[in-house]
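Why diguanylate cyclase? Reviewers of the renewal asked for a concrete example.
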Amino acid sequence: MDHFAFLLPSTMILFAITFLAVGWSGPKSARAWGLAFLFGALGFIAPILPLPFALQSLLANAAFLVSFYCYGDALLLHFRAPRMIAPRIIFALLAYAMVIVAVEGFASLPLELTVADISVAILLGVPLASVIWRAHTLPDRVLVAVAGIVVLDIIVRLFIFNVLVGISPALSDFAASSYAYYNQVAVGVLSVGFALAAMGSIVSQMLAGYRSAAERDPLTGLLNRRGFDAVAAPMTPMGQGAAILLVDVDRFKLINDDFGHEAGDLVLAGLADILRSILPGTAVISRFGGEEFAVLIPRLSMAEAGALAHGIRLACSERDWRLCGVDRLVTLCVGVSLVLSEEPNWKAAFKRADSALYAAKDDGRDRVMFAKPDAYLAIERAA
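Here is what the prediction returned.
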């Protein structure tokens, strides 16, 4: 028991160091996990310090309240939920005041444990309840499940030892009590599970962030070529049909030369906003490179694709670009094609849309052109 008493806080300190190291330049939730395990370790060290029993109890409970506040904060940060900082701090302070009354006023171990257990269960349970529906990935669901087990363990422990078994009322009997032994074993097992679940969820979130960064254009926030390929591939199975729109700003190099690259970047960002506002939510929108944007819209007819393409062209030519530092008209061309029913993916249609885009440029710019298997037609005629 004495060796185990040192093993548990040592293990929690190692977890704390690991999470704090990850959080040094990583997500804030990792730092919160680190602090939670660090204060949790302090809570288990307090009863073996050479201090009066009342002071041991007060120190341990303060550490556990801070620890579970940090556990709750870590969940809220991880799932990007409102942190409710002030209410949780006020609750923790009120809970500690009640602990002080139980220890100093009544010198009652059962009352102290009841107040402390209910308080830490609430400090973790309320954040858990507010994030449970935000867990969409398997690692996040595992983390939520383990957190739920921790809260359940606290409630069951409170019922068993305070209601069924009973606890000696003397504060000095805590270290030798069956409650203390069960607490050490349960927390030892659950802390490992909690740490592994939290680390797995953090790593999964970080990898998703890196993947998103690799598939997003930093200027416009749209998908890049790689991201477009990844998202569009499963959206064009054979026979379902889709439309491809390739959008390209006319004489974009002159905009950069005459008004500067910063103005050119603002034009591209503005065009991205136009695409988001006009295209349906099912559209896959990407900046394919330079001033070229690629769009895939599933289950769309040629007439519908043409109407959207013209809407994009008109919105661009009618927009006042002076706020971007460009005091002249900005126009664009759009090449449109359909993914044929016999085509397994979007790539052949993309090539046809690309050819239609160049046909629109050759036809005088500020055009929308539709690609047919044997010709390119101005879409206002073809539609």
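Residues 178-214 form the longest helix (37 residues). This is the kind of structural detail the renewal will allow us to pursue systematically.
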